[in-house]
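Question:
Write out your own:
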Amino acid sequence: MTEKILTVRNRAGVHARPAALIAQTANKFSSEVTLEKDGMQVNAKSIMGVITMAAAYNEQLTLKTEGADEGDAAAAIQALFDSKFEEE
């Protein structure tokens, strides 16, 4: 299992567009990809699951990936957060 702490760096937080990017990216991998915030854990391959987390600017999420390509999946999701979902 790969685990990373990610910080929401775009001012608008994780709204519909970033949630869609996260889910699309997660679905490219066979590994299980989950996001956790305040004890709530969601499947990152589900747009609705990611949206329900209501992650705001500067909040931290825990990313967990498990499977054959877990390292690549974690790196791809982290790159989205690092790029501020290409919004700024």
Notes: The first strand starts at residue 2 and ends at 7. The longest helix spans residues 70-82. DSSP finds three helices and four strands in the chain.
